[in-house]
Amino acid sequence: MNLIRDKKIGFIGTGNLAQAIISGLLESDTVRKDQIFASNRSEKRLDRVAEKFGIRNFATNEEVVDSCEIIFIATKPQDLFDAVEPIAPSFDESKTVISLAAGIRLETLQKTLPNVRNLVRVMANIPIRIGKSVIGFCTAEEAVLVDDKIRTLLSPLGYVVKAKDDEMLSAITVSAASGTGFIFELMTYWADWIKDYGFSDEEAYHIALETFLGAAMLAKESKTKILDLLDQVASKKGVTHAGLDSMRELDIERALRISFEKALLRDKELGR
Questions:
Q1: For residues 176 and 49, what is the distance between their CA atoms, to the nearest angstrom?
Q2: Is 9-162 a CATH 3.40.1010.10 domain?
Q3: pTM score > 0.70 for this model?
């Protein structure tokens, strides 16, 4: 049963993430165009988005709240309070409110929207553009019957996982959202190294890209654990084994963990 087929869904803000979600919802036939409503600070952008997706646009954020049962707050974090605080009384217990604002914790959102029981934070990484996102969410303790609704909404856009609290959601932010950037950085190392041996920029790019893509797809499609797959490609005294020994001697894992923790600290700073 589709839990949201008869629900009106609103977006306060129509930036890239909001557009990616709208696109995924429509392309997957999770919702219809006539279920989606949006507002935006920039009227020109709002008009473009409404025309692009065939959705209805509203002149004010309050109209979105009044008309919709499910509301995505899709503003930039620094703009959230200016957008929401003046119309906070319009939010009531009948609304499910989903914040996409990075770093703004549930406790802060609850103070801003004290009448909302079903309050949700969502984190999605950039592969949401192609329906391959990692999407984390956590809910207020008072929230009821929300989890299935969130999974129905967001599963067409990628892998959806629930975090118990803000701390766990921050870890998903670093591992998946920031993690995508970390992987892009590693891919540049691969490409730069292979170029040193005479390959063109394009060839090096595709060698790096297909190596990462092939490894990920093999791990996903195989019933074998990643460590077992690692053993299959790293025979003792072989070429791969020699490289892995060096990586372990250099303590690459420790360096990555430090990078993850620094990103986590920054996420917490942004939430203050």
A1: 27
A2: no
A3: yes
